[in-house]
Design brief:
Blueprint: H1 9-16, E1 25-29, H2 33-39, H3 44-64, E2 69-76, H4 84-107, E3 110-115, H5 123-136, E4 142-150, H6 152-169, H7 179-184, E5 196-199, E6 218-221, H8 231-243
Helix pairs in contact: 2-3, 3-4, 4-5
This protein binds 3-methylbut-3-enyl trihydrogen diphosphate (2 copies) and magnesium ion (MG).
């Protein structure tokens, strides 16, 4: 995707949203790695490892399907509450993934963008992420957004804080604040509206992911555990989406 102005729910209601056919923007809560491993008597890290392979496959499939933006929830701001050993394993996998896949992703024309406070990661991981963003900055075939240390409530809070500061400074009037003002201060600014939100592993919750952005997203929950989510799984979700009728409150 290229830099295109964010569209609000109002714009979508006016008929410019993707009401049928293919989604432009898909987000996935990649859940179930631990259970996948547990069921095989393996350590949780084995599930995360397999989960990374699934993510790679899904990026390729999304490209083949012409999806403009794929947003993957890789680490939530709440995931810090996991044992230190698991967090360290996840960071190692992230390092390895970037080192191994960055060139291929860049060659495929994918632009990498990150949402979430990844600056809180170890300095070498921050450096790798910055390198991935810079290396793919000029790509425009598709965008891969990775949510790292992301939490939606904190994202909205930060947006509100910036707006409040502008109002306090007198550069913005309180009654000029619209939903677009809030959107412009979110980390997803400039991305097309979220069309389809997928969560694997049978859990039916958002876990602090894209709360604002999913206002009119179609939700798709599948029992498939993330490491088992393959090309066909994504095709199934997209085909389910294409059968949905989006009404945005209208008839
Ligand atoms: C999702 O799988 C990956 C991350 C949250 C990083 P989980 O690790 O949450 O797997 P389950 O939910 O315990 O099976
Ligand atoms: C959501 O999964 C976060 C990611 C997939 C990165 P969790 O496994 O952390 O969510 P909860 O704890 O079940 O809500
Ligand atoms: Mg989980």
């Amino acid at each position: 995707m290229t830099a295109e102005p964010a569209r609000s729910v109002d714009d979508a209601a006016a008929g410019t949203g993707s009401s049928e056919g293919s989604p432009r923007h898909i987000a996935i809560i990649m859940d179930g790695n631990g259970r996948w491993a547990q069921r095989r008597g393996l350590p949780r890290i084995a599930g995360h490892r397999k989960g990374i392979e699934a993510a790679r496959t899904v990026v390729k499939t999304a490209g083949a399907l012409g999806i403009e933006v794929l947003t993957l929830y890789a680490f939530s701001s709440e995931n810090w509450s996991r044992p230190a050993s698991e967090i360290s394993d996840l960071m190692d996998l992230l390092r390895r993934f970037i080192r191994k896949e960055l060139e291929a992703l860049a060659e495929e024309g994918i632009r990498i963008r990150v949402i979430g406070d990844y600056q809180a990661f170890e300095p070498d991981v921050v450096e790798l992420i910055d390198r991935a963003i810079a290396r793919t900055e000029t790509n425009s075939k598709a965008t891969l957004v990775v949510a790292l240390n992301y939490g939606s409530q904190s994202e909205i809070t930060q947006s509100v804080r910036k707006i409040a500061a502008d109002v306090a400074a007198g550069t913005l009037k309180a009654d000029e604040v619209t939903s677009s003002t809030i959107e412009r201060h979110l980390s997803t600014d400039g991305l097309p509206p979220l069309d389809l939100l997928i969560r694997t592993s049978g859990e039916c919750r958002l876990s602090n992911f894209l709360l604002w952005q999913s206002a009119y997203a179609e939700l798709y929950f599948t029992d498939t555990l993330w490491p088992d989510f393959d090309e066909q799984s994504l095709r199934d979700a997209v085909s389910d989406f294409s059968q949905r009728e989006r009404r945005y409150g209208g008839l």
